[in-house]
């Protein structure tokens, strides 16, 4: 059947690799506070040229992928007996709506960059297959029993990387015809007679294999991280009512807050801070007040959208700090509940969210009890651009 075309990615994550230690397959171990697989998936989700992702996992690891089940761009497939079987499962998962091109990537390479993904995808315009590689620059030896037994000429030798890119129909047919035992998908492609272009690889695109690779990957990520900050400010006036909603928590009060939605001034400020860090404007841009469907809407809709947009672009919330400015009601007794609500909506641990309050010493509109203001600051942390 004719498919929707475009470029899809297959991320092979079905291995049981435990050489790196930690009691879990390496793709589910933490790297800078986030599973390795999360970083890898985020790199492809954040690339504008990749429309769909198939994540191929071991049946025992289904619980690890629950967070992606609701994302329409991600399909989960069960892996095979070996890597080739897992790649074939990923290719089969795309067969009902085949892409024009497919990028096949090892989940244990979480430092893959947008530029590298783009180089491989672009090369497929002129060649049926393309893969990144780095020329071998070190001397090569043969060895046995801990001693050098010979040397080998390094001319023309390359270190292969992923993602390896192919025209979808060609690589699926190549896998179907291959007897097995290939080192990678390039070997499968060449066995089928496909010409494979070499594109420039990336020295930082390491494959996590042993325990020491986690520390090395963390050092590289800290060097190339894309860190963004944003701030938000919001104000709502008091009106007649019997309570206010602040940071998702309902507080009994002798007034209410006036607004087009539920007037949650704290959540609005935080949402705008996230949009600001992403250079995505403010709530009004995404949820126009002129649209009647948002009248009286719960503000968690807005915050979920902003946080989800950040995740889709490969960012995680490093921290969020919300300050509520009012004379009344008292915020302190409710601050912990507010933090828990915001952390849950942003899908981060509680320790990354702060909520506090201050007064304006009875100065200005907040001091006169005419309304409540809120300030929010966030830090978003992403991988390489």
UniProtKB/TrEMBL annotation:
4-CDP-2-C-methyl-D-erythritol 2-phosphate binds at residues 234-236, 260-261, 282-284, 358-361, 365, 368. The keyword Lyase applies. Keywords: Isoprene biosynthesis, Lyase, Metal-binding, Multifunctional enzyme, Nucleotidyltransferase, Transferase. Residues 228-385 are annotated as: 2-C-methyl-D-erythritol 2,4-cyclodiphosphate synthase. The record marks 154, 207 as: Positions MEP for the nucleophilic attack. Pfam families: IspD (PF01128), YgbB (PF02542). The record marks 19, 26, 260, 359 as: Transition state stabilizer. Bifunctional enzyme that catalyzes the formation of 4-diphosphocytidyl-2-C-methyl-D-erythritol from CTP and 2-C-methyl-D-erythritol 4-phosphate (MEP) (IspD), and catalyzes the conversion of 4-diphosphocytidyl-2-C-methyl-D-erythritol 2-phosphate (CDP-ME2P) to 2-C-methyl-D-erythritol 2,4-cyclodiphosphate (ME-CPP) with a corresponding release of cytidine 5-monophosphate (CMP) (IspF). This is Bifunctional enzyme IspD/IspF. It comes from Oceaniovalibus guishaninsula JLT2003. The gene is ispDF.
């Amino acid at each position: 059947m004719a498919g929707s075309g475009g470029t899809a990615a297959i991320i092979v994550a079905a291995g049981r690799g435990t050489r790196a230690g930690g009691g879990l397959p390496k793709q589910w171990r933490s790297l800078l506070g986030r599973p390795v697989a999360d970083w890898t998936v985020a790199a492809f989700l954040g690339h504008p040229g990749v429309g769909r992702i198939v994540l191929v996992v071991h049946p025992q690891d289904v619980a690890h992928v629950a967070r992606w089940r609701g994302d329409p761009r991600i399909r989960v497939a069960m892996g095979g007996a070996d890597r080739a079987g897992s790649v074939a499962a990923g290719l089969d998962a795309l067969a009902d709506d085949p892409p024009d091109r497919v990028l096949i990537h090892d989940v244990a390479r979480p430092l893959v960059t947008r530029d590298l993904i783009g180089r491989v995808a672009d090369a497929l315009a002129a060649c049926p297959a393309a893969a990144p590689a780095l020329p071998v620059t070190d001397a090569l030896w043969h060895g046995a029993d801990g001693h050098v037994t010979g040397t080998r000429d390094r001319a023309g030798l390359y270190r292969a990387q992923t993602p390896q890119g192919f025209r979808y129909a060609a690589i699926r047919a190549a896998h179907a015809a291959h007897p097995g035992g290939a080192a990678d998908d390039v070997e499968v492609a060449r066995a089928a007679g496909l010409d494979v272009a070499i594109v420039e690889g990336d020295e930082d695109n390491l494959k996590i294999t042993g325990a020491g690779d986690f520390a090395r990957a963390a050092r590289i990520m800290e060097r190339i991280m894309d860190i963004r900050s944003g701030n938000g400010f919001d104000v709502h006036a008091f009106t007649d009512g019997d309570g206010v909603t602040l940071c998702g928590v309902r507080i009994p009060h002798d007034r209410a807050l006036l607004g087009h939605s539920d007037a949650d001034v704290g959540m609005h400020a935080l949402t705008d801070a996230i949009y600001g860090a992403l250079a995505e404007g403010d709530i009004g841009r995404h949820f126009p007040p002129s649209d009647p469907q948002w009248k009286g809407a719960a503000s968690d809709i807005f915050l979920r959208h902003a946080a989800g947009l950040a995740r889709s672009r490969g960012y995680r919330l490093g921290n969020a700090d919300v300050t509520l400015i009012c004379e009344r009601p008292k915020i302190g007794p409710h601050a912990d509940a507010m933090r828990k609500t915001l952390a849950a909506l942003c899908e981060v641990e509680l320790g990354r969210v702060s909520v506090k309050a201050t007064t304006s010493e009875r100065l200005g509109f907040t001091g006169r009890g005419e309304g409540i203001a809120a300030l929010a600051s966030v830090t978003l942390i992403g991988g390489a651009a």
